[in-house]
Amino acid sequence: MGDDQVSRRRPLDALVVELATGLIDADARNVERVYSALLRDLNTDFGTDTCFLRHNDHDLDASVLVAEWPPRPSIPDPDPLGNVPFCDADPVFASTRDQTTVMIYRPSDQPRPYRDRVTTGSGEPSTTMVAVPLVGEDRTLGVLGFVSFRDRVWSTEEIDAVTAVGAMLAQVHRRVAAENELRRHALHDELTGLLARRGLSEELRTRLRGDEPIAVLFADVDRLSALNDFLGQGIGDRFLRTVADRLTHRLPSAAVARLGGDEFVLVVGDVTTAADGVALGERVRRTIAEPMSIGDDRVTRTASVGVTVGTENPYELLRRADRAALRAKASGGNAVVEYSGGTADEALSRNGLELSLGEAVATGALVLHHRPEVDLRTGRLTAVESSVRWPHPTRGLLGPADFVPVADMSNLAPELGRWIVEQTCRAHATRLSRTGRADLRVHVTLSPGFVASVAFPDAVAAALDRYGVDPRLLCVGVSETGMVDSVTRTADALAAVRASGVRIALDDVGSGYGSLLHLKRLPLDVLTVDARFARDAVGDAGDRAVLAALATVAREMSLDAVATGVDNPEVARTLLGLGFGPARGAAVGPWADEVVPAVTGTAGLPPTGPRLG
């Protein structure tokens, strides 16, 4: 094999496509493994001796080794190739800080400090190196490097291929960095710096691994809302930060979390008896009840503290502590109550549900179900509706109404919403590929809490881009029942997403809360009519009048009107007569793990039946 020729397993274009496919599912949890596999393939296909990936840490102003192939058999300590500060770097390493084009270093081009660093770190002489920059929007993110222990010539086609790989790695770097930042925010409460629900969940799991009892204390501040009402939100926030500081410093061995506006949870190890737990609870109660001066105001608030000690799972311990705190508050507050047990089917507390929901999202325990949308006039499958479900370990399969409002009342709305959008786009990309239906749309309803959040537009754009779904095929629905207090924020967020081509639907129209106001203020393409009207339309003249009016309004506003609740052929025929086309319901197709395009429905429309393909 000559110096300028390499025997390849596959053509360069096929290599780039295969590598791109391998990077699609890279995330913060698996990225190290993905990087190693990619470097292995690159090293083999380009016939180099070693391949490496480095990231620029702009906070440390250093180049950091992320992955290499093959792994060095012996790594010096300290590793001269590990973290290389740019201020102390040789000219080659220093140039990678702001590098924007591919650089090729031949043996005669390399300065001696660089050759010495490589030889010390790898035990090999430095010969030909190609450095491919990972270029971000405003700075260089790192470098992909190829080293040959000979004088290797690189062709223009090879440079083009590795440049494409570098661009893909830059995308992965940005995506993973965003995930890590979101994770950091998810683990901690922004106001106090304490653990948030996700962080508390991880702390509980960690402390329970040793099978030793731990104490969980749930402290609910009494009458905090009155403090906010009379002295202002700013005073209330300063009060909470002061409480957080006191708890952290006075119980240094405890992991302290803030779950909601006025709720704190402490996890303490080395507690073996309920009496010890109650004693800790008294310390917490007294700590919160101590008067504090905030500006010119002297503030005092008490707390209701629930205590439990055990080795059960995180959800169960938090549930018990929460129930005990509720009993303390019910007794008048300013008290400590030990959990005294209850029936096995006792209702799950909201905070316990929040904690287990956070775990479900983090571990991928949620699932999507799908059902078809069919045009009643033609019987043709026009769209698929996707909806989240939660196979709960004790409560069975939960629908979105059972837990999405819980996410909206907590800091879980962005995390849950992002998961739903990601999985919807992923499933639809597979569906489009399998069916060959380039015009098939997907509809997914997202919670108002997520839609009104800053995370919403970027989450939708990222999911569409990641799975290659045309934005015009995605329809985002938002229920009118959840927008009482956030119509303006919701409208702005929906407009931003709609500008990319995504269709917007107002779901459950007619269920209340000012449908006409929402029709006027929201940037809409679709109206989805509340299922209750369709179900009673056959025998209720009032419901038929409402449906006819909604169909007329949709036509006048150039909106598509989708009927739901089409549970039998008679309802379908009634809706056809009222002017509806697209429809969903049991007669069209049930909720399932996936919509099978070959299925024929019985919506009772055209005599030949629906054509679902």
TrEMBL record:
<dbReference type="InterPro" id="IPR029787">
    <property type="entry name" value="Nucleotide_cyclase"/>
</dbReference>
<dbReference type="InterPro" id="IPR003018">
    <property type="entry name" value="GAF"/>
</dbReference>
<protein>
    <submittedName>
        <fullName>Diguanylate cyclase (GGDEF) domain-containing protein</fullName>
    </submittedName>
</protein>
<dbReference type="InterPro" id="IPR001633">
    <property type="entry name" value="EAL_dom"/>
</dbReference>
<dbReference type="InterPro" id="IPR029016">
    <property type="entry name" value="GAF-like_dom_sf"/>
</dbReference>
<dbReference type="Pfam" id="PF00563">
    <property type="entry name" value="EAL"/>
</dbReference>
<feature type="region of interest" description="Disordered">
    <location>
        <begin position="107"/>
        <end position="128"/>
    </location>
</feature>
<dbReference type="InterPro" id="IPR035919">
    <property type="entry name" value="EAL_sf"/>
</dbReference>
<dbReference type="InterPro" id="IPR000160">
    <property type="entry name" value="GGDEF_dom"/>
</dbReference>
<feature type="domain" description="GGDEF">
    <location>
        <begin position="212"/>
        <end position="341"/>
    </location>
</feature>
<dbReference type="InterPro" id="IPR052155">
    <property type="entry name" value="Biofilm_reg_signaling"/>
</dbReference>
<dbReference type="Pfam" id="PF00990">
    <property type="entry name" value="GGDEF"/>
</dbReference>
<feature type="compositionally biased region" description="Polar residues">
    <location>
        <begin position="119"/>
        <end position="128"/>
    </location>
</feature>
<dbReference type="InterPro" id="IPR043128">
    <property type="entry name" value="Rev_trsase/Diguanyl_cyclase"/>
</dbReference>
<feature type="domain" description="EAL">
    <location>
        <begin position="350"/>
        <end position="605"/>
    </location>
</feature>
<dbReference type="Pfam" id="PF01590">
    <property type="entry name" value="GAF"/>
</dbReference>
